[in-house]
Design brief:
It contains 14 helices and 24 strands. It has about 475 residues and is of the alpha/beta class.
């Protein structure tokens, strides 16, 4: 049998994108997937969580409609129906992925693939597949910290929580990262009592400090209980589940009906034959160069297993870079401006450096900000929380980062990512004319504020990050 030009292990955002791209470049390609095409993002991550969050947001708006002069009676929800619609959305998109993959000319093989060495893959331990190039895109899985009782019947990882057809009344979430705060937003909107226990001193570790503070204030204002610096030591099932944690040297307890463990994700690299192929790992992740090449010729890696941002769009970009390199395209993909999105309410989006990181690296930097409450579209929607912040190099005008907390922030951030990718300067960003009234105007106002020229922001020229 003629060997494949490209064989991809894993059918998630990196895997199916690589297979389709390779086939469209005229290569003989296959994607090998043991589970369902679409990976974690489509089946147990991005899509199902956002489908649930969208429904939760609509429910919250319905309850608050009197503010806009509207009347609604008997407002309620059927969580089983909400979950069923989520499943329908996922199934439809999954069929789309399978259809696109096959229509491109890429073969989809169902089974567990394992490297037997460079250029050879066994599927389900029997069938052998030869490939000139292999792209590893096996993704990640929910991490399970070593906590007594973590395997109890009332403890769920993110996959398990997304399978619920009914909402527990009281929920403790272990982890205040992206997954944790999105679950908190979701279930609190559905009138549940939610408690977050986060090991570090802040929510959203790694995000800009102003974003961290604003999100905590927003969630606590709504009634979410947040305990940072909290180390969970045990989970006791019973009539009610009791979560024990240490905080400030004291032992504390949180009672609940269910626990969601959202303590991060780890690479899914076990038993895929990395040792047989001679591929080295670091903390479980596969090291690659800018073209996504591993240390073994003809073997590439993309997505969560590489140790970069565990984001679907980053995985897709890395997969496309690997295929381009295989095709002989030496235009190396630049991964300097990959946005991060958090679907809280309001949404959060970030790209580039935080203010603290920019200050440490560049020293002479300048910051502009604009509050959501001063935006016309926000006044229409009665949204007062959040801000937009632009960070620049004072001497060159280079855009170093941006951080937004506002409705549609996850859409708005793409404009800044594009500007950074094109190496636009602050002057060029400030020259963009934004349509009115839109939330996107906040970005323009923040850019003007870097030089103290924001028209709709009161007060003196921006001197620090006090927003």
């Amino acid at each position: 049998m003629q060997p494949y030009d490209v064989a991809v292990l894993g059918g998630g955002p990196a895997g199916y994108a690589a297979g389709i791209a390779a086939a469209r470049r005229g290569m003989k390609a296959t994607v090998i997937e043991a589970d369902t095409p679409g990976g974690t993002c489509l089946n147990r991550g991005c899509i199902p969580t956002k489908a649930l969050l969208h429904a939760a947001g609509l429910y919250r708006q319905m309850k608050e409609c009197a503010l806009f002069g509207l009347r609604a009676s008997g407002v309620g929800f059927d969580y089983a129906a909400v979950a069923a619609r989520k499943d329908s959305v996922v199934a439809g998109l999954r069929r789309g992925v399978e259809s696109l993959t096959r229509a491109s000319g890429c073969e989809l093989i169902r089974g567990f693939g394992r490297l037997l060495g460079p250029g050879v893959i066994a599927v389900d331990g029997a069938d052998r597949i030869a490939a000139r190039n292999i792209i590893l895109a096996t993704g990640s899985q929910a991490a399970r910290p070593r906590i007594a009782g973590i395997d109890g019947p009332s403890v769920f990882d993110s996959d398990g929580a997304l399978a619920w057809t009914a909402c527990p009344e009281r929920i403790v979430i272990i982890g205040g990262g992206v997954i944790g705060v999105e679950f908190a937003t979701l279930f609190h909107a559905f009138d549940r009592k939610v408690t977050i226990l986060e090991l570090t001193d802040t929510l959203l570790p790694g995000f800009d400090a102003d974003i961290q503070a604003a999100l905590r204030k927003s969630l606590e204002k709504r009634g979410v209980a947040i305990h940072t610096g909290a180390s969970v030591t045990g989970i006791e099932p019973g009539g009610e589940t009791l979560v024990t944690y240490s905080q400030g040297g004291a032992e504390r307890h949180a009672a609940c009906d269910a626990v969601i463990c959202a303590a991060g994700r780890r690479p899914r690299t076990g038993d895929i034959g990395l040792g047989e192929a001679g591929i080295q790992t670091e903390r479980g992740f596969i090291r690659t160069d800018a073209a996504m090449r591993t240390g073994v010729p003809g073997i590439y890696a993309a997505g969560d297993i590489t140790g970069g941002p565990q984001l679907a769009h980053a995985a897709t970009a890395q997969a496309l870079a690997a295929v381009a390199d295989i095709a002989g395209d030496r235009n190396i993909q630049r991964f300097c401006a990959i946005p991060a999105c958090v679907y809280t309410s309001p949404e959060i989006a970030s790209v580039g450096l935080t203010e603290a990181a920019a200050r440490q690296r560049f020293g002479d930097m300048a910051v502009g900000s604009f509050p959501t409450a001063a935006n016309g579209r926000a006044a229409i929607a009665d949204v007062r929380e959040g801000f937009a912040k632009i960070i620049t190099d004072r001497s060159t005008g280079e855009i170093l980062g941006a951080h937004v907390m506002a409705p549609a922030a996850t859409d708005m951030i793409a404009g800044i990512a594009a500007a950074m990718g094109l190496e636009a300067t602050l002057a060029e960003l400030s020259a963009i004319v934004y349509p009115h009234p839109t939330f996107a105007e906040m970005l323009g106002e923040a850019a003007h504020d870097v030089e103290g020229m924001s028209i709709h922001k009161s007060g003196a020229k921006h001197q620090n990050s006090d927003i």
